[in-house]
Amino acid sequence: MARRTTARGTASRRSSIPKRTARVTGKPGPVPSWSSLLLMLSDPVRIRVMRALESNEVAVGELARALQVPQSTASRLIKPLYEAGFVARRVEGTTSLYRADPHAMGDAAQALWELSRASVHGTPEAREDDARLAAVIASRPTDSVGFFGRVGGEWDSIRRDLFGEAGGVEALLSIMDPDSTVADVGCGTGEVSQWLAASAGRVVAIDREASMLEAARRRVAGLGNIEFRRGDVDSLPARDGEFDAVVAMLLFHHLDDPGRALRELARCTRKGGCILVVDMVEHTRASYRTAMGHRHLGFSEATAKEWAKGASVHLGRWRRLPPSVNGCGPGLFSARFAKR
Fold first, then answer.
1. pLDDT tens digits for 249-281?
2. What is the CB-side half-sphere exposure of residue 12 using CA atoms within 13 A?
3. Looking at domain 145-339, which of 3.40.50.150, 3.20.20.70, 2.30.30.240, 3.30.365.10 is its CATH number?
4. Which of 69, 80, 254, 273 has a beta carbon 3.0–4.6 Å from 269's, enabling a disulfide?
5. What are the residue ranges spanned by the domains of the chain?
6. CATH of domain 31-140
7. CA-based diameter of the chain, in Å?
């Protein structure tokens, strides 16, 4: 139930996962001669490879399935493109992912590539390649559990890469009461719980991931007003009306049904209490689905209102948070719900 996100040069950093989750390997070699370029792109299958890698970052096996070629053939076709610097490789765990970068080719090579790409544009084979590649990408598991199990205590750095230092802290200031009991649902490494503990009387930090809870315990060692519980947002380890306030920070985009989650948060909140949800506004960074297990690409105010209706709570305020100049992720919003 760990929340967060998802995100290297300024431009590429805005559309990729944070650099701590992967590494880029290999050093491009010199740009090949003109005759070598012509030879390289005279292979129609290699043109199909470049088209696929230009639109998506994929593993060799995925490319082989999309183009319906043996995996050894896909690997052989990628190799000279990678050695020439036209394709970058990023290592995610034990998997190598490849993506073409035509802008790294130089003017002459890029012009040749554009002619080669245009020669197959709109052909039945190109359309079939595109459809199969889309199906391969769609079949990837959306694995938020695996992502947070891998990053564990590194989440703080990833969150800062995406959202800067503040990360929605100011949204917490509106719910603090020195005598209150506050739940931090999807507590992750405990940073929000630590902030809450400075103002609230008691904090209950809840997460489904053991690695996150262990990191949180290390962070807040010595603080006596934080209790840790392991559980899932669909069935929280809490009594009805136990909390004066509940915080869900960068959690909802990982959930299959955020509306159901809000109903469960409302169950654990006393009458007159409040629920604070901080998450991403609507965005188009589809790579976050597979890279960091996002189920949703952000939310709108209208969506938050629909959640409120289903949970019998009142959406008192929804607003975009000021963007961080240091963050490379999507913008954030805060939504404050009141328990009727």
1. 999 999 999 999 999 999 999 999 999 999 999
2. 13
3. 3.40.50.150
4. 273
5. 31-140, 145-339
6. 1.10.10.10
7. 76
